[in-house]
Design goal:
Elements (H helix, E strand, L loop, with lengths): L1 E8 L7 E8 L10 E7 L12 E8 L9 E5 L5 E5 L5 E6 L13 E7 L6 E6 L1
Antiparallel strand pairs: 1-2, 3-4, 4-7, 5-8, 6-7, 8-9
């Protein structure tokens, strides 16, 4: 927001003047995509790890303001993992939602998508192995 004071004066022999305030509000445009920052990662998890075991911690941010800067994360595909958002919505925990089976799958490629609530919506992805 910008606030300007404008003064106008004439050049008559008896100069008269007046002033007014002009307020300019800048509206945010959704021009920044969300960012995912993996702050902690366990690269190997035991197959007997209990459901709810934290695999990774991630921070999410968007430089836009208002709804343009609000971010929601999701996982692609069907996997034994889930995302748990923090109460403030600015970070997520990647957790196991079931027991893992190394004989069934010895490695997972987990695709996380962060999407903002702006219009049009912007998104970014992060791949965790």
């Amino acid at each position: 927001m910008y606030e300007l004071k404008v003064l106008a004066a004439d050049k008559g022999s008896v100069s008269l003047s007046t002033q007014c305030n002009v307020v300019v509000r800048v509206e945010d445009v959704n021009d920044n995509q969300p960012e995912i920052d993996v702050t902690s990662l366990s690269s190997s998890i035991r197959e007997d790890a209990a459901p709810g075991t934290v695999v990774a911690l991630m921070g999410v941010a968007d430089l836009d303001s208002g709804v343009n800067g609000q971010v929601v994360c999701s996982l692609s595909g069907d996997s034994p993992f889930d995302l748990k958002p923090s109460p403030d919505g600015q970070s997520y925990s990647l957790i196991t939602k079931d027991y893992l089976d190394k004989e069934n799958s010895h490695m997972y490629n987990i695709k996380i998508t962060a999407r903002d609530l702006g219009s049009p919506s912007l998104s970014s992805t992060k791949l965790i192995q």
